[in-house]
Amino acid sequence: MRFFHSHKKTLGPPDWILVGIMMLLSLFGLLMVYDSSVSIAVRDFGNQYYFLTEQLKWLAIGCVVYFFMAFTDYKIWKKLALPGLIATMLLLLVVFVPGVGIKALGAKRWINFGFFVLQPAELAKMSLIVYLSTWLSEKNTKKLIPFLIILGIILFLVTLEPDLGTAVILLVSALSMYFYSGAPLAHFILFIPIVVLGFGGLSVFSPYRFQRILTFFNPEHDPLGASYHIRQALIALGSGGLFGIGIGQSRQKYEYLPEANTDSIFAIIGEELGFVGGAILILLFIVIIWRGFAIARRTEDPFGRLLALGITTWIAFQVIINISAMVALMFIMT
């Protein structure tokens, strides 16, 4: 989306605070992805720079898209909202096609296009936000049932992969946008038992998720099994102390901590940069979230306001869920 102060048709100056922090976090991300992935990259690909080059590739693509969209009227997304949502649903189905979808660690979440691998669930976050921004900004009093149907289809496909963490982010983002659009409070009272029963059932009746709930309440339960991941994350964070043991000095990244270069990267950051480094990182994300909500507040166009609110809420809850899981405030969801 476009990060401009002006509500006029002419382009205004960008939000330099937001742009600057995004650039800083992107460069820091490159450093930490390389740092945390060396062992895994050598083991799986024989190339310590494999994940760094992959991250660089996607960062370059992201920069090109950013500069293109910075000079494009964001309202173009309204025309692409429905086709984008339909395409995303089709891609979420394609992950289950043998020979096309990739299965790893017991999940089917990726599509192999030959020259790159795509995770449709990540695409679903943006496409759902764009579609809901378009639809909820229109004057239509009968929104509850269609909203539940659209959200239910997306959540069903993502949960089927399974990817409960992404499903939670999609749910929270969608419900927040529904609230932002002015929906009556009574609807949210209706959502509470549905959400509790749905995710409660998925957690309790899925053996590995149930084990993770047990370890959340009792970290000593199954230390080499269900609680291994969170115990290693806490060891990494505890080892970092106040200022960390230094960039590149992590011991947990040497295959002690699962998914060190992806889901668990905050634990590596805490180990190497300590409490102070982790706190600064969280502070930078808070500033991004604050600037995002500030942009939404200044935006008069209903579609633009909902789009800014949706994207900001997505970022906020993704940060909250990821970091909370690493510091044992929330059990790890997949």
What's the helix and strand layout?
Layout: H1 16-45, H2 50-70, H3 76-94, E1 101-104, E2 107-112, E3 117-118, H4 120-136, H5 144-160, H6 164-180, H7 185-204, H8 207-217, H9 228-240, H10 265-298, H11 302-326
Antiparallel strand pairs: 1-2, 2-3
Helix pairs in contact: 1-2, 1-10, 3-4, 4-6, 4-11, 5-6, 6-11, 9-10, 10-11
Could you explain how this protein is built, in words?
By secondary structure, the chain is mostly helical. Helices cover 67% and strands 4% of the residues. The protein has helices at residues 16-45, 50-70, 76-94, 120-136, 144-160, 164-180, 185-204, 207-217, 228-240, 265-298, 302-326, and strands at residues 101-104, 107-112, 117-118. Strands 1-2-3 form a 3-stranded antiparallel beta sheet, covered by helices on one side. Strand 1 (101-104) and strand 2 (107-112) form a beta hairpin. The chain is globular.
Key descriptive features of the protein:
334 residues; mainly alpha; three-stranded antiparallel beta sheet; 3 strands; 67% helix; disordered N terminus
Spatial strand order of the main sheet: 1-2-3
Content of β-strand: under 5%
How helical, in percent, are the residues?
A: 55-70%
The end-to-end span amounts to: 29 Å
Mean pLDDT, to the nearest integer, reads: 84
So what's the overall shape?
globular
- Please outline the major beta sheet: 3 strands, antiparallel
